Amino acid sequence: MVRIENISKNLGEFFLxxxxxxxxxxxxxxxxxxxxAGKTILLETIAGIYPPDKGKVYxxxxxxxxLPPRQRNIGMVYQDYMLFPHLxxxxxxxxxxxxxxxxKEETAQKVDELAxxxxxxxxxxxxxxxxxxxxxxxxxxxxxxxxxxxxxxLDEPLSALDSETRTKLREELRRIHSFTHTTMIHxxxxxxxxxxxxxxxxxxxxxxxxxxxxxxxxxxKPNCKFVAEFLxxxxxxxxxxxxxxxxAYINVNELKVASATTRDGQVYASIRPEDILISLGPIxxxxxxxxxxxxxxxxxxxxxxxITVDVGVPLVAAITRRSLLDMxxxxxxxxxxxxxxxxxxxx
Amino acid sequence: MLSRLxxxxxxxxxxxxxxxxxxxIVALLIGVVTHTTPxxxxxxxxxxxxxxxxxxxxxxxxxxTLFCIIVSVPAAYALARxxxxxKVLLNTIxxxxxxxxPLVAGVGLLILFGTTSFGKGLAEAGIKFIFTPQGIVLAxxxxxMPFMFRILxxxxxxxxxxxxxxxxxxxxxxxxxxxxxTLPMSKNGLMAGSIITWCRGIGEFGAALMVAGATRxxxxxxxxxxxxxxxxxxxxxxxxxxxxxxxxxxxxLFIFEKFSGFAHVF
Lengths: 347, 266
Known about the structure:
The complex is a heterodimer. By secondary structure, chain A is of the alpha+beta class. Chain A is 25% helix and 36% strand. Chain A has helices spanning 39-47, 89-93, 104-118, 133-145, 163-180, 191-197, 215-220, 225-231, 321-327; strands at residues 2-11, 14-23, 28-32, 54-59, 62-63, 74-77, 151-155, 183-187, 200-205, 208-213, 236-244, 247-252, 255-259, 265-271, 277-279, 289-301, 304-310, 314-320, 334-339, 344-346. A 6-stranded mixed beta sheet of chain A has the order 6-7-8-3-9-10, with helices on both faces. In chain A, strands 13-12-11-14-20 form a 5-stranded antiparallel beta sheet. By secondary structure, chain B is an all-alpha fold. Chain B has helices spanning 2-33, 38-46, 48-81, 87-99, 102-114, 117-124, 133-157, 162-169, 174-185, 187-203, 206-212, 222-231, 235-261. The A-B interface holds A 44, 47-49, 68-70, 72, 74-76, 78, 80, 82, 84-86, 95-96, 98-100, 127-129, 143-144, 147 and B 160, 162-163, 165-174, 180-181, 184-185, 187, 265-266.
C-alpha cells in the first residue's frame, strides 16, 4: 500500500502542506479538487519526481522518500499523454523494458500483450503525432503498465478526450483495474468518473487532503463546508434500480424512488435540491415521487434556503427565503417532498 | 471605397520598401560574383592558396562547432531546466560574447592565452593558441558559442519536462532520460544551432585575426584570405574567397530555415 506521511512541498504556485494519505492495495483512489489544490504535485511526489521538503512516502512499508523514480515501480500517465514523439508506438510501449534486462522474445511478447490489452496492436508502427487523443492515451497506459507497476498514477487521463472516447477509455480503465488489481490513484475533475471508477475518493484543497472515503460516503457526508460546496451535489444515493413498465424504481434504504432511467442494477441517483417541491400537505400532481418526513435542518445561505428533510434518507430541498417565511417552516415540522421521475439523475 | 484605396496605397508603399531592400542585397551579391571573369574566378578557386583557405575554414569551423555543441548542451540544459541563485546573472554573462565586438573578444583571448600564466602553462603543455590554427578554433568557439547556447536553451525550454519525468518512471536515470528522450526531441534545434554556428565560424574574422594573426598559408581562412588579397590588390583571389563565402552563407541560410521552420513537426 501507499502511505504518505505529513508531506510538504513548495513549488511556488503549487504546494503540498503537511498532508497525509493511505491507499490500500488494489484500491482505485480518485482525487478531486479545485485547480491549484496540489493534485498533480501530490502524484509527482509519489512518483518521486521531486523530493518533498518534509515528510515520508512509503510503499508497502518501505520508505521510498529518497528513492529516484526509476527504483519505485510506480507508473505515471499524464493528461497530455507525453508519448515520445521521435519513437513509434512499439518503441514507446517498450521504452521501460530496456532497464529490465530481459530477452528480445520476452520484450516482444510483453509489448504484444499490452498492445492487445489496450487494443492498439494495429498502431504499433505509427508515430504518436499521427494518432488521436484516445489512441495516444491507450499507448501511454500500455507504456506504464508494461513495467508491472505496483501503483499507477493517472493525472486527469481522460480530460483531454471527447466525451465518447472518454466513456470508452473510462470503461477500459475499470476493466484494467479489475484485471490487474494495480493500485490506481487517479486525479480528475469529473464527479461521474469519481463515482464510476473510484473505490475511494479524496478531496484536496490548498495543498491538503481534506477528506477521504468511499465516494458515496464523501458525497453524503462531507466533513467540512469546503467539501460540501466543492462537490455541490447533495442528494446522492446508491441503490438498486429495477425497471418496471418503463419506469425505474430505485430502492434507497427501503425508499422507492421513481426515475426515468433505463439503467438497472446498482446505480447512483441524485436529485438537485431546486427540483424538489416542499408542501405542508400531500399534493396531487403528475410527479411520481412524493415522500413525507420531518424537517431536520434549515440552512440559510442568503436568498436561497436549503432544507433537509428526513424521509428515510435525508433529502435537501432548496427554496427561496420568501417561501420559507410564507410557509412558516420550522425544524421538526412534518412536510411532503415531491419531485418528478425525470429529475432523478441516475449514473 | 476611399479607405480601401488608401489601404492598398499603404500596402504598395510598404511593399516597395521591402522590394528596394531586396534589390539592394541581390545587386550587392551579383556585383561581387560577377566582378571578375568566370575564367579568372575558376583559376583562383583552384589555386593552392584558396584551396588551403577552404580546407582550413572547413576544418576549424567544424571543430569549433563541435566544441560549441559539447559545451552548450549541458549548459543550456541547466539554464533551461533548473532554478538556482544567480541564474539571471549567469544567463547574461553567457550572452556577453554576442554583444562584444569580435576584435575585443580577440584582444581578450590574446591576453588570456598569450600573456597570463594560465595561457603560458597551456602553451608549455603543447596547447598553443597564439598565431596557430588552434587559435582560429578558439576564436570561433568564443564568439559563436552564444548562438548555439541560446538556440539550445530555447529548444530545451520548449520541451515539457514531463517527458523526462515519464521516462524516469520507466526506469531511466536523469541522464538516460535526457539522452533517450530530450536530446532526440531537440534534433531540429541542434541542427539549426549547428548550422548557424558553423556558418558564422566560417565567416569569423575579427577575433581570429587577433588571436591567430593573418599569415598566408598558415592561418589563412577564407575571410583572412579575402582580407589579405584585398590588401595586396589581388582582386580575383579576393573575389574567389568572397564568392565561396556567399555560396556557403546562402546554402546555410536555406538549411537553417528548413530546420527552424519544422522545429516542432515530427
